[in-house]
Amino acid sequence: MKNSLLRNGFYNTLAGVIRIGLGVLTIPLLIRIIGIEEYGLWTLAYTVIGIVTLAEAGLSVATTVFVSQDLGKDDFEGLSQTLTVTFGGMFILSSIAFLTLFFAAQPIVNFFPQLEPQQQLIIRQAVQIGSIVVWSRLLQQVLVGVEQAYQRYDVMNVLNTIQSILLSLGMLVVVWLGGRTVDLMQWQAFVSILLLFSHVLVVRSLLRKVNLNIKWDKKKIIDIGSYSLISWLTSLGGMIFSRGDRLVIGSILGVNALGAYSAITDITILINQISALPAQPLLPIISNFKAQKDIDLSILHKQVKTAFQLNIFIALLIGGSLLTLRDTVLNIIFSNSYFQEYTISFFIITIIYSMYSINGVGYYVLLASKAANLCMFIQLISGISSIILIIWGASKFGLIGASFGNSGYLIVWLLTSSGMRQLSISFGTWLRWLKLPFLWFLGVILTSANFTISGSLYLRTIVLFIQSIALVGWLIIEQNIDIKSILRRILIKC
Description:
- Helices cover about 85% and strands about 0% of the residues.
- It is an all-alpha fold.
- Helix 1 runs parallel beside helix 6 and helix 1 runs antiparallel to helix 10.
């Protein structure tokens, strides 16, 4: 099972690294071509689309959990019931979301009085086109849930990587040819429809040997519905933090500040997106475990330790790299024309995002352990706290104050403590797994804050190399990775 977790985590992480590379390249190029103001408009329109995708009501996670349980029990009648409820429910929800977004575009625009009339028209048109994006992506999420339940992370990540490449390169081509926000949303819609059909073909191949029928079961509807509701509320907390902040800043500080803030967070959010990927395979694994009668917790604890330490390693390595190379990163994003407050905001946000990203394992453990209600509560409290602090900070201290406001989301550390408790892993145990990399990251923060180091790219690169070697060494020791054996296999293949 450990090999399965590492393999699936590797597939997720490899695809994620490609996406982070595309993001780092695409964002600064977009800003250079269309300008910070137009990028702010695009961010505003895309944020609205992202928030409306919450209409999925938690069905994507529920699909993974319940399909995994049906497969673990070889219950193909239950599988038919699960897929009937999830696919039927998502089709209804996605259609409602499509119609609502299309016809409510103008009222949505009215929430942003600072926009000029021409800007309001652009946002309205983009949001209406974005309704197609919402419809296709919602349906796509249930299909991805089936792929995860079958643990086909290889195929899933190939499709996700293709989607990222098409979106990133396509957007650059669109703006290079003179396209702007509305044209970018049209490209998003085209790619979303294309990938929806691709996932349909994959899921069809996975289910081809299963005799499925449309079966509505009242108990299954209630079970999936209640679980999905809790999961949806859990996602709401994360969405309040990751998207609601942009709506707040756009409303309080305007599109220029929103463009700068979005450019920074579009980079730092990748810390969370990439570091959580090794933990994602825990969802079907734990769900499958729970469906079995005899559970060997020692085996499960090893899986959790591996996923947790990979989560820590990736989150802090990316965060530490961004802190050490922050001047270079900001020069790339803003083309050497940025204010001092951008540097301070980037420093603050990177630290906060790195620290909260360590909690990916706790999140998936709670969802898989049917403790989604607790996960929901923690996420909601964290999201609401961060938005309140961002509103206060933006109103009082501008962009830097809004950046500090993100610290409210650090309440999600309760996810890890609660998740570990669900699996009978003591506080002292998981704290030992975390202690050394945490001290390492504290050292990185202090080092990167040094003015002399921040002024020299050569010196910063050397420091980054030394830092990375230290963290890699910790992971090798903790996971008992046999480097000699790995090198030997590589040499034999060569």
